[in-house]
Design goal:
By secondary structure, the chain is α/β, with parallel strands linked by helices. The chain has seven helices and six strands, in the order αααββααβββαβα.
Length: 176
């Protein structure tokens, strides 16, 4: 079980929703966490962190995954990146102003599924999403506030699978 994203906030605390260890325990598998901040303090720090020998095997495994499960986080007032302390209020507002509607493992994108330039995306310590041509990248997402992000991710093929609830599926079909 391989983590695609870091789980450390700027104050040094770990993310509450990091489920890699629970999943690995359930299936009796080795786990490969990403002991990094979700958002590095600078692009230079990001490059330095991702180049560390203990991180390289995790990044290599993530790139070769046959199946990847990701969440889609919204960028509204209760954005998980903001609520969990990974980005500041001013960064959230800058991402919103730039057109950001959602994120996948920290990578923020707009309504068209295009990655936002700069702001926090040049500091994300997450692995890149695996190739959708040679693997399954399945999003788990539901709820009205995530609809713009789900639509963008599916339409732009940031993901090629979706697990959701009936209400969200109906809203997605109505919006298509």
């Amino acid at each position: 079980v391989v983590s695609l994203t870091g789980n450390i906030s700027p104050d040094g605390s770990a993310a509450f929703y990091n489920v890699i260890f629970t999943m690995a325990d359930r299936v009796k598998a080795r786990s490969f966490p990403m002991p990094l901040p979700v958002i590095a303090s600078s692009p230079e720090e990001r490059e330095m962190l991702l180049s560390q020998p203990m991180i390289q095997p995790t990044l290599a495994l993530a790139a070769e995954a046959d199946v990847t499960f990701v969440g889609i986080g919204d960028l509204g007032p209760k954005a998980p990146l903001y609520e969990d302390g990974f980005i500041s209020e001013s960064e959230l507002k800058a991402l919103q102003k730039a057109g950001g509607v959602a994120e996948i493992v920290g990578w923020v994108f707009d309504r068209e599924g295009r990655m936002i330039e700069g702001i926090t995306n040049d500091r994300v310590s997450s692995a890149s999403l695996p190739s959708r041509e040679k693997s399954l990248v399945i999003a788990l997402a539901m709820g009205e506030r995530k609809l713009p992000g789900i639509l963008a991710a599916v339409n732009r093929r940031l993901v090629n699978g979706l697990i959701t609830d009936e209400r969200t599926a109906a809203a997605l079909l109505a919006a298509s």
